[in-house]
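Provenance and format

Records in this collection were gathered into a single text stream. Each protein contributes a sequence line and a token line. The two records reproduced below are adjacent in the stream.
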Amino acid sequence: MCTSLTYTNKNGGHFLARTMDFNIDFGARVMLMPRNRTVQGDAGDFTTKYGFVGAGRQLAHEMFTDGVNEYGVGVATLYFPDHAVYQQKADAGKLALAPADVVAWILGNANSVADLQAQLKNVQIVSRTAEFIGVIPPLHFIISDPTGKTAVLEPTGGDLHLTDDPVGVMTNSPDLHWHLQNISTYGMLTNVEQPLQQYGNYQPETQGPGTGAIGLPGDYTSISRFVRTNFLKHYTDVPETTAETLNLLQFILNSVTIPKGVKKISSGQSDYTEYRSYMDLDGLTYSMELYENPGELQQVALTADLLNSVTQPVEYPLNHQPRVHVLNPEQVAK
């Protein structure tokens, strides 16, 4: 169960950020994928044209859950339980993709949201078990590019197509159309203090700033996370620089980050935020923030040198140790 959002700062920089929430530790690493790589996918081989970087694992084959490619196309996969419908097999002449291979295929082959839409007529997602979790994962996908165009791919049976996402936010089930209709319920929420009504001869005293957001849902359901993320995205002050934008995105995701133990599933396990990632779609950087090491962004830049020189996937080691900046080390050492 995850939350994702796109963001555009004052300088026109476009970003895609997400939480990865699940009950199994994926052991995700930041992985670089070279150009022209043939992937032995769970539903058949496919070849990438473009290089990309993201959260990946080198298992029986390369698998990614989110990332950004050399054209600034960013993709994130999110759980879509009880709504995802896949084909049993692909029609003749169409590429068959397993759900867990969709992110890698998009990042490796689409140079824009519009380009992806044109290619989807030749692709079908088929029911295949994901090796790492041992189930057929019900997934949908959010895709954005440097123009700010954002869409959601929701396989619900039949031909694949993209749905425009006018708010640039996605969580889990239900589908995007349902979420967009639901936020009308909260359309009166605001970031300014609301005046209090007088009751008879009694005028209640103000409770102070924040009353405009009374009623904003605070639980961890997909529905509430969608509403909360939209509210924060809409009302936060828009930053200018990349560093300021990444800092703001961390604050927004704080509101939907799930600590271990507070969201139990039927098996007794706990969904929690394993990592958060931040994709700069203009600067072509991918940053990961781990549950064990919050606050530190561990980043790989998709440079021209990397794209032109790397021929095999590269996994970058991550620091899982929390960092504390001691301000008086000379005193602590005594």
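Adjacent record:
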Amino acid sequence: MLTQETIDIIKSTVPVLEVHGKDITTAFYNMMFENHPELLNIFNHANQREGKQPQALANAVYAAAAHIDHLEDILPVVKQIGQKHRALNILPEHYPIVGENLLAAIKKVLGDAATPEILDAWAKAYGVIADAFIGVEAEMYRETEEAPGGWRGFRPFVVDRKIKESDVITSFYLKPQDGGAIASYLPGQYITVRVKPEGETYTHIRHYSLSAAPGQDYYRISVKREDETPGKPAGVVSTYLHDAVNEGDVLEISAPAGSFTLDTKTDIPLVLISGGVGLTPMISMLETALKEQPEREITYIHAAINEGFHAMREHVEQLDAAHDQLKSYVCYEKPLGQCTCHKTGYIDLPWLQEVTSKESDFYFCGPVPFMSAVYQALQAWGVPAERIHYEFFGPAGSL
């Protein structure tokens, strides 16, 4: 337990963290990787370069400081981050390394303003927060390992099928090399792939949403190829999967994880909205809802640049034709020819009001600008926060 004096000191640093948080976390990652380069086998290098990971950590540190007297308030965030930590195989011995370098970064950025009292208070606070993470994650490791078909760490899977879904998206059907059972999952969850492409110094780890309903003898991920664009290098893992991984090859996988999942206990209308490769968790949710909730009204909306970028269109159209409860719509930003879609341009509030009901549960996923537009439209419409559900690919951000 923290003393009131320690709590007061931590809360007094909240305004400083609001201003200098990202500077501190950027310095932290630089120092930690210099001192412990082996951790580059775990962290996403692209998220480091783009500043996403330092910003996400800065937000988490700020939230912890602001709620230090009621840490139970941030337990949902701890569990969400814990899911990713378990998928990455983060272990208790990693936490002292993080603590040591975080305190050093605070001292480096704040200089003399980081008094011994402040550093001591943060050391104590970090210990409490780390213990919370370690406890939550220990339970996650136990549950995952003891689940039917479950396992701990990474397990080899064979690429059973590799299917091109669009100009940029390819699906990989993965079966365990040992021929054993595989753990089930909740629609919306992801698995984590660990690879070491030729010429790379470190292993690279990525989360990929499962793009099919649970209950199969395989996992399916549908991966967008991230080619080089101005100011952004090509995706190391996505290009490796597309170019170098073929049927019969083996990939290392950690068990399904994630907290962005479909609530099948409610029967209010369901609206699923995806942009680009954001369709992956939506397809899993769609297939599951159709199977488990045959009376539930479902609307599925997918937005893509054009026909060439649209994956699984025929599959969704077949589901639409076979289920009276489902209505599906397509929005193309710039159709290639005569539009075979329901809307051109972007999804907006007037169109959402035409094709969906405000009294629905809304789930959406896609590029951040797309999600921001959908989120702001739903807010403007007055949809309650508890019926708006979304997920970021990568570190959590803000809409």
